[in-house]
Amino acid sequence: MTLDIPFQRLHNQKLSHPTFKIPNEVVQWLGAVQAQDYAGAKWALAQRMQDTTNAALDEAFADGSILRTHLLRPTWHFVTPKDIRWMLKLTAPRVHAVSAYMYRQSGLDKAIFKKSNATLEKALRGGKQLTRNELASNLDKAGIPADGFRLGYLMMYAELEGLICSGARRGKQFTYALLDERVPPIKALSRDESLTELVTRYFSTRGPATLQDFTMWSGLTMTDARNGIDIVKSKFEHEVINGQAYWFPEATSLKKEKSPTAYLLPNYDEYFIGFKDRSAIGEVAKKAGIKGDDPALIAHIIILNGQIIGGWRRTLKKDEVLVEISLITKLNKAEQQAVAAAAERFGRFLELPVLLIHKEHTNEQRKTRSL
Q: Distance (Å, rounded) from C-alpha 5 to C-alpha 201?
């Protein structure tokens, strides 16, 4: 067979045929969702759901049905309460190893981390949820200087050790809570069980993908990747393309997506951030001579029929959202309508009308209002 990689990834990530109704189902399906851009990560989840709003995603985060913490590579990710402990136990040792140099550069050692964790535990005990600045103040009072990168590493270390995780937001500020008070204990998985689960989740939801893609996404070693795929390979099909083995779930149930179909994906969406090699979705950009740092791509990515065709940015106003689109290729009328429909969906998510600003790669502009 000849792999249609973009088509299969859109399907397996539930973008082309969303079935989920609640946020934690999406996060559990994907395993982890990159989330340092909180607003963008909510929109990433929403596009894999049948119908939801920004407010509903905020509620799910506030009540702890989805959590936000450092794991995998690491950066902030959404993860479910059911998965957070085994995923941290599996990936934290690797993160500590690659972060060891920066720990030393920041003057942090085991004794300081032990004291810092004890201070954070005491400050948060009893269901308290405090901001980073409030916890920094507690650390300073305990004689642990905490600012800049040093504070970031102290907080990340506590997250990786399973001491703290996200609390509810206080206005626009994020808070931290004790993981043990936020998430009831569950049966622990062995390392092999955890590795098997992570490899299965990854290739089920991001396949067709390579072992190199998995190691980039997970932060684990190639040895782990090979061991994991050896355990689960009977669940997957694979095909070798240009010397690389692509692993993916059985494709018999794939439903054909209507064409043209467009998506306004956020800057760290798993459709492209979850892969080391993104060439499969860059064919249009390659033909147009566009590189990843081209200003036409702005911050967020427009996908049309699985391919990157430009970038977009959002500007929230009191009574509308401005969506500025910059394209790297000419679109026909049907394709323009598909992009406009994607913008309208974003407006429904925010419960605001959309003012669509279409900026051609030639810098010509026109405005249309999408209700």
A: 17
Based on the fold, state whether residues 269 and 244 are members of the same structural domain. no
Q: Residue 170, SS3?
A: strand
- How far apart, in whole angstroms, are the C-alpha atoms of residue 158 and residue 117? 6
Which domain covers residue 237, as residue numbers?
191-248
**Domain of residue 298, CATH code:** 3.30.70
Count: domains in the chain = 2
CA–CA distance, 114 with 161 (Å, rounded to integer): 11
Whether the CB-CB separation of 267 and 314 falls below 8 Å is answered with no
CB 33, CB 41: distance < 8 Å: yes
Based on its alpha-carbon atoms, the radius of gyration of the chain, rounded to whole angstroms, reads: 22
| Domain assignment of residue 269, yes or no | yes
Is the same domain home to 208 and 232?
A: yes
What's the pLDDT at 68?
Answer: 98
**What average pLDDT values come out for the chain (371 residues) when binned by 10 residues?**
87 94 97 97 97 97 97 95 97 96 96 98 98 98 95 98 98 97 92 98 97 97 97 95 93 71 96 94 89 69 96 94 94 96 97 89 44 31
Long-range contacts from 55-58, C-beta under 8 angstroms, 24+ separation: 55/351, 56/23, 57/23, 58/169
Q: Which residue has the tokens 């892969």?
A: 275
pLDDT value of residue 359: 75
- Structural element, H or E, at residue 360: none
The answer to the question of residue 316 being in a domain is yes
Is pTM beyond 0.90? Reply is yes
d(CA 309, CA 300): 11
How many helices (DSSP H) and strands (DSSP E) are in the chain?
15, 14
Q: 49 by DSSP, 3-state: which?
A: strand
At 93 the pLDDT is: 96
H/E segment holding residue 100: helix 81-105
235: Cα separation from own chain's centroid = 25
Residues 6 or more apart whose Cβ sits within 8 Å of residue 265: 44, 47, 271, 272, 300, 301, 302, 303
List, as own/partner pairs, every contact residues 132-140 make where C-beta atoms lie below 8 angstroms and the sequence separation is at least 24, other chains included.
Answer: 132/174, 132/176, 135/176
Residues 360 and 273 placed together within one structural domain of the fold: yes
